[in-house]
Amino acid sequence: MQLLVGFGAIPDLLRQLPAGEAWLSEVERARCLGITRATRRDQFLAGHGYARQLLARFDGGVFADWSLSHNEHGAPLATRRGADVGLHVSIAHSGAQVACAVASVPVGVDIELAGRQRDLMRLGKFLYAPAFWRALAEDDATSRTQRFFRRWTLDEARAKALGRGLLRTTLATQEWTPVAAHQADGWTWDLPRGWLAIALAAPADEAVEITFEEVAPAAEARGWRWQQCMPREMPQ
Q: Percentage of the chain with pLDDT > 90?
């Protein structure tokens, strides 16, 4: 099974777009008009333009053949010349970066750039089961940041693949176990200043081949297997 992924800088992606906004679908134009913040609008345009580029590379055609709408949860739906071709697309953004993934099965992508300092122990206790935040407590500051954001981006990516938002109760009753990349249904990459994650809604029936559009992350992929765990008492 093929999975195409890309990430890039928003200013670069905006420069590659056709002039104006006629390339947007009617649904996209309506959503774009409702975005008042310029930075958020740039993220929207860059992400939806980049998704078209990846869809054309994945399944053929050209940029103009592809359009996007969205489901009731806001997740992108791809069509080629107005027809549903059974492809799934996911878009994420953080700061001045956009990431996108395309596959023939439900897929989610998330990207998180390092930003302001956060109390990760407090967040870990609020969101996750005791085993996870106890592991955070044993980490040094660098390892704690890596552990938290690898987990967070995986959870975000899987929620997108499932077409639903993140719920605290869900986060506390699931876990990700490290596995070989070829056995995984989730993958993370450490970026120079952030983290990238991809997750499938369910384990694939065949080997997954991940291809990056243009440049792949320098770091190797870490493979993860999602599993449900027993509910545990959460801190108040």
A: 79
Count of residues for the chain? 236
- How far apart are alpha carbons 99 and 23 in whole angstroms? 20
Residues 27, 97: Cα–Cα separation, whole Å? 24
Architecture (CATH level 2) of domain 2-114+178-224: Alpha-Beta Complex (3.90)
Three-state DSSP at 46 gives helix
Per domain, the residue ranges of the chain are 2-114+178-224
- Tokens 């345009």, located at residue: 45
Report phi then psi at 187, rounded to 5: -140, 145
Report the distance separating Cα 53 and Cα 163, nearest Å: 22
In the chain, count H helices and then E strands: 7, 11
Task: Take residue 104 and report the two structure tokens written for it.
Answer: 């023939």
Reference 109, options 121, 101, 119; nearest CA is: 101
Tell me if the pTM is above 0.85.
yes
**DSSP output for 122-145:** HHHHHHS-HHHHHHHHHS-HHHHH
- 102 three-class SS: strand
pLDDT digit string, tens, across residues 127-157: 999 999 999 999 999 999 999 999 999 999 9
d(CA 27, CA 43): 17
**Distance from the Cα of residue 9 to its chain's centroid:** 15
Could you give the CA distance from residue 184 to residue 179 in angstroms, rounded to a whole number? 6
